[in-house]
Amino acid sequence: MRIVCLGDRESLSFPGSIARCGLRVLRVKFPTLSESTLVLSMDSNLQETLNHLQVEIDALESDKTALLLRLESLDSSLFHLRAKYGTIKNRTALIGILPNEILAKIFELGRESNTPTGRQHFEVLVSHVITAWREVAITTPSLWNILEIAPSKSSRMLATYVARAKACSLIVRFDFMQEVWVPDQSVWDVILSTVDWWCSLEIFAGRNDAALYATLAHLEPVRASLLEEIAVSRGSSMHTIEISAPVPLHGFRNSPRSFQGGAPRLAKLHLEGSYLASNWPPLTHLSTLFLHELRRSTRPSWTRFRDLLTSSLQLSRLSIHGDVVSGKPPSNFEINLPQLRSLRIRGTTPLGNRVSDLLLTISAPSLDSLTLYDMISSDLQPFLSGFQLLTSLASLTLYWPNFTPNTYIQLFETMPSIQRLTLMDRRPGDFLSLLGNPFRGPSDFLCAQLKDFGLYPPTAPSGSIEDMVNNRATHAPLRLLRLGSGLSLPGVRVLLFNLSPPQWPMWSEQL
Q: Which domain of life is it from (predicted)?
């Protein structure tokens, strides 16, 4: 056996045991190469390989970049094509073929579902559904003409509403119900620039008087040439925040008059709480006035109260809820309201005999409609004792009265021309009996000229209603019943109960 070793002499060194084994060693000698020569040869080959690989990598990276750019372009084209496809497909839906004018009207009706505490209002939501709806929504000025001034409404959002409302008349609402908060200057900069377009101003004051007076102070110097309605309401929400410490008013409380520049078209004024006439412009064109539970310390005297009511010769609707005047009227005191057509008086506990005081002092020769809400017999006794005839009165509404039969008889004697009567009473049996039976002679019925009678709720036995109608058929026949029942009576139309005339202004009718 031979072992061939490649290397120089010194490298061929074997242990003696190899020789003893009888192995034969063959030495072969090669020329000697230096280490530097070997390294240079190796580096040259590797660098060439690396350069080749780098070229391939760069080529692939370039191809990848080109492909990514192409993919991005394809994604963009695909997005726009899908949007266009969706838009065209949406127009094939039934609602998609509606004319824009009808769609805009639907959007306006949908806006009525907005609530003061709603996070997203309808007009905003509907403008983010599809492109076609957005185009209709943002180009419908009447969809954006309600400016709600609240902590959640930024000046930027209000400016967007103003821009989209264009020259449409604006309804401006200040909401101070939930937080002790006043608008900052950026908000005032937006809304005061639009005052020439205001048609209605509503302030929900809550318990934050500071915010109210600050608002009135900002409105003091301006002129609102198109403003027709002002309503200041004190909310009764359980979530209203109680102010534990007074908020600085910076002299706002003594502001002499809001809209000192004038509000020549102001026709409706609703004042609730502690806010009365001294803060408002001349009321020479006022047609509707609603006074609601003025605080004891701010109730006007009867003379000032008369000045308020007679400041306009056009006052035709007056609504009084609770006590709004201080003390008893002077003797022979009269408030002459020649154009007054409708008078509403509500409240027993805070009002008491004030009902009689008002009915005895107000002279309204054209009064056509009277509404009395939550009255008891003693409330009307001074008026009934004075026996002031209301000969022009044709319509009477009684909400939840607590009257004796004698009170009813005396009341209707003072109103001999009643033709329309609406009664809200959960136990109307005694009244129906009184209405259906003559009380002096066989042809002498209560409300002899009555033609239209409404009863709510319709809980009375149908027999009582039929007897009343039949008993009056000969001498004092009814022509219309508003009951909501399925009665069918000869000579009488029976309709569903409806409260007419409609609610005005901002007085919730709790049926």
A: Eukaryota
With respect to residue 168, please indicate whether it lies within any of the assigned structural domains: no
Q: Where are the beta strands (DSSP E) in 87-241?
A: 146-149, 170-175, 198-204, 229-233
Residue 409 in domain? no
Q: Do 223 and 262 meet the contact criterion of CB atoms below 8 Å apart?
A: yes
- Residues with Cβ within 8 Å of 114's Cβ and at least 6 positions away in sequence, in order, are 121, 122, 146
Using alpha carbons, select from 264, 323, 312, 253 the residue that is nearest to residue 287.
312
Q: Which domain holds residue 12?
A: 1-31
pLDDT tens-digit readout, 321-378: 888 888 889 988 999 999 999 999 986 555 556 788 899 999 999 999 999 988 888 8
Q: How many domains does the chain have?
A: 1
Q: What span, in angstroms and rounded, lies between the C-alpha atoms of 126 and 134? A: 7
Q: Whose structure tokens read 């609402």?
A: 173
* Enclosing H/E stretch for 270: strand 268-272
Contact predicate 458/485, CB 8 Å: yes
- The yes-or-no verdict on residue 383 having pLDDT over 60 is yes
Mean of per-residue pLDDT scores for the chain: 79
Phi and psi at residue 498, in whole multiples of 5°?
A: -145, 145
Nearest to 1 by CA among 16, 17, 14, 19: 19
As given in the structure block, the two tokens for residue 196 are 């020439």
**Contacts (Cβ under 8 Å, ≥6 apart) of 440:** none
CB 90 within 8 A of CB 96: yes
- Taking each helix axis from N to C end, the angle separating 354-361 and 377-386, rounded to the nearest 10 degrees, works out to 30
Which has more pLDDT, 463 or 68? 68
Q: Is residue 396 part of a domain?
A: no
